[in-house]
Design goal:
Strand content: 15-25%
Oligomer: single chain
CATH architecture of the largest domain: 3-Layer(bba) Sandwich
Shape: globular
Radius of gyration: 23 Å
Number of strands: 18
Number of helices: 17
Helix content: 25-40%
CATH class of the largest domain: Alpha Beta
Length: 552
């Protein structure tokens, strides 16, 4: 039985119930974002019996709504976060090594302008420190450009107050795909992972947490999971989860919101990514991606509803104003915005600091009931965050049970999709698989998108494309139905919104295709899962709301 198949979900739940009744799990991880995913993989790789539950879909919160960069944290030098810069720089290399399809080198231009946060001298020094701390490869070292060279590199950029620029490399990723690939790898090694499972209360034994009551959000059923150790990796929901603990400690988070907007690339046809100063001395990215360009991000304090933060008129106007100041020829307006997303950053509370001043470092807390809480942190640093949590659990197991738990090995674990055979370089793999996709009748652009989405799993996608091309019975293009079948059977995809956002990213970067295929996708999933009218209407409404929320 595939233990990460949505079709087998009820059987997996039944097995989970049986396993928990016989013997408690070593570790229950609450939260299926990048942090919880990393903890589940690390703990499973060390031989622990692990279960992960997520109240929404995997990566539905912060981990599908980032700037989609695995970056070395150049901006954190301004906060003198030297250790953080060094750590995430090294982690970037590890992610590239273990999932090359999800860590694509991205050339980035940093314009130096009069009155900006960096002058030529300070920018040069900052880049050298950054590259030393992050151990940047020789071929990816920065280049200093004159004002004239910047104009050639990026013709759309304003020439006003331009002093020069720096070209350097960041790495682009698909945040939700990275999260799911990590969970898939954990499940493949023996972990149990379930989405749409909400923790509603904790179970105690002698005042110490010994499990959780969980609600199946699909059918409302309640059941218990017993575990020796429980980790709250709830991201923005850390405090809400902690409030379920009768020995909860003081709230730990300061939530900030970041908004990104997507336009067609012909509306903002940048030649490479640009990272520039804003009018209020922040920094914003403009990044080309799959024939679109996305812009972000804002950074404002947030105290609203956590599940679906909205893009406001103020957010949109701010980003458009910033971009138009640097790219005046584009003259972007609201009508040019095709889609967008609003995400929340669960930052550790630091009173008196502004949104952009709060450190992105993670912190560990332990309540007197034994609940382990991980808060803060960054996408790039997920693996080290997980290592610190599981080290803590391993130390407790040694103390309480006298058992030695192996050390962390995730720095050398190839993720699902990252297992390219032999000594083949990713560039060679990419070239070969593009040709195979073309032979199937796909375009070069379509094959590249698929390869960077699925990595070494592309053969399964191609096989499904070939089968669906011959069948053509579900009113869906073969390339869509192949990915939908794969998502359901191999990636615990339960709803159309799961598919269009977290499994493919189409809602953000190909919203017109979503609108064309949404009815057929809904019908296909309804037939697979045998939804009743109530569930069919629920998931249809959920998708319509998601489409509506992509714009102001």
């Amino acid at each position: 039985m595939n233990s990460f198949s949505a079709i087998n979900r009820n059987l997996i739940i039944q097995q989970l119930n049986n396993a928990s009744d016989k013997e408690p799990f070593d570790l229950l991880v609450i939260g299926g974002g990048i942090t919880g995913a990393g903890i589940a993989l690390d703990a499973t790789a060390r031989g622990l019996k692990v279960v992960l539950v997520e109240m929404q879909d995997f990566s539905a919160g912060t981990s599908s709504r980032s700037t989609k960069l695995i970056h070395g944290g150049l901006r954190y030098l301004k906060q003198l976060e030297f250790k953080l810069v060094a750590e995430v720089g090294k982690e970037r290399k590890i992610i590239h090594q273990n999932a090359p399809h999800l860590a694509k080198p991205e050339l980035m231009l940093l314009p130096i302008v009069k009155g900006g946060s960096l002058n030529k001298f300070s920018a040069k020094i900052a880049m050298r420190i950054y590259e030393w701390l992050a151990n940047v490869k020789k071929e990816e070292k920065h280049q200093i450009l004159s004002a004239q060279e910047v104009g050639v590199a990026e013709p759309l950029l304003t020439k006003e107050n331009l002093l020069g620029g720096i070209l350097f490399y960041e790495y682009k990723t698909n945040d939700s795909r990275l999260t799911i690939e990590i969970i898939k790898e954990a499940v493949g090694r023996g972990a149990t992972a379930l989405n749409y499972m909400k923790v509603v209360s904790f179970i105690y034994k002698n005042e110490i947490i010994s499990g959780a009551k969980v609600k199946n959000e699909i059918n409302g059923e309640l059941f218990e999971i017993k575990a020796k150790y429980i980790v709250n990796a709830g991201g923005p929901w850390v405090d809400e989860l902690d409030d379920l603990d009768k020995k909860a400690i003081e709230h730990k988070l300061h939530i900030t919101k970041g908004v990104h907007l997507v336009v067609n690339q012909n509306k903002l046809a940048v030649k490479q990514s640009v990272y520039f100063d804003t009018l209020d001395k922040r920094m914003i990215f403009v990044i080309p991606h799959n024939r679109k360009t996305y812009i972000g991000t804002t950074d404002t304090f947030y105290n609203g509803e956590l599940t679906n933060p909205k893009i406001t008129e103020e957010d949109t106007n701010y980003l458009l104003k910033c971009v138009n100041a640097y790219f005046p020829l584009s003259k972007l307006t609201n009508e040019d915005i095709e889609s967008g997303w609003a995400g929340l950053r669960p930052l550790v509370n630091k009173p008196g600091k502004g949104p952009s001043e709060i450190s992105r470092k993670d912190e560990l807390f332990i309540s007197s009931s034994g609940l382990i809480i991980i808060a803060g942190g960054k996408l790039t640093g997920y693996r080290k965050m997980a290592e610190r949590v599981v080290d803590l659990v391993a130390k407790s197991i040694l103390k309480n049970e006298g058992k030695i738990v192996n050390g962390c090995s995730t720095d050398s674990i190839k993720l699902s999709g990252g297992k390219i055979s032999g000594s083949l370089k990713f560039s060679e793999f990419l070239k070969t698989k593009i040709q195979e996709g073309i032979n199937l009748g796909l375009s070069t652009n379509e094959t590249e998108i698929l390869i960077y989405r699925y990595g070494s799993e592309i053969n399964e996608i191609y096989s499904l494309v070939e089968k669906q091309t011959k069948i053509e019975k579900n009113n869906l293009p073969a390339i869509i139905s192949a990915q939908l079948i794969y998502a359901i059977e191999k990636e615990m995809c339960l709803t159309p919104t799961d598919f269009f956002i977290r499994r493919t990213g189409m809602l953000y970067f190909d919203i017109e295709a979503v609108k064309k295929t949404k009815s057929a996708v809904l019908l296909f999933m309804q037939n697979v899962f045998k939804w009743d009218t109530e569930l069919q209407e629920k998931f249809s409404s959920e998708l319509e709301s998601a489409i509506e929320n992509t714009k102001m």
